[in-house]
Amino acid sequence: MCLSSAQCRAARALLAWSQDDLSSASKVAKATIANFEAGKRSPYERTLQDMKHALEGAGVVFIPENGGGAGVRLAKRAEASIDTNETETVQYEEYLENDAPPGAGG
């Protein structure tokens, strides 16, 4: 199985999502989600994948069983940074005016 009921509940909690939120994001009926999380039924594999993909799209990372138990966590958010490539010239709008003398190639 690609998603356990405990992982689903934990993932929603990390995102502060209700069952309605997951239903909207995954296009899976709320009743199906509620029954799955309560352990009343196991949805089709495709339905589980739809829920998992919706949660992953919102930033959840699923941790596989590795001897310590399967789990979930939030993906590390990309921090604002400037990608600098020192071999590349960047021209800012305020410096686009050519102030070189004619014939200087600037």
From TrEMBL:
CDD domains xrefs: HTH_XRE
PROSITE patterns linked: HTH_CROC1
UniProt xrefs under Gene3D superfamilies: lambda repressor-like DNA-binding domains
Example GO molecular function: DNA binding
InterPro entries from the UniProt entry: Cro/C1-type_HTH, Lambda_DNA-bd_dom_sf
Region entry Disordered, spans: 86-106
UniProt name for this protein: Helix-turn-helix transcriptional regulator
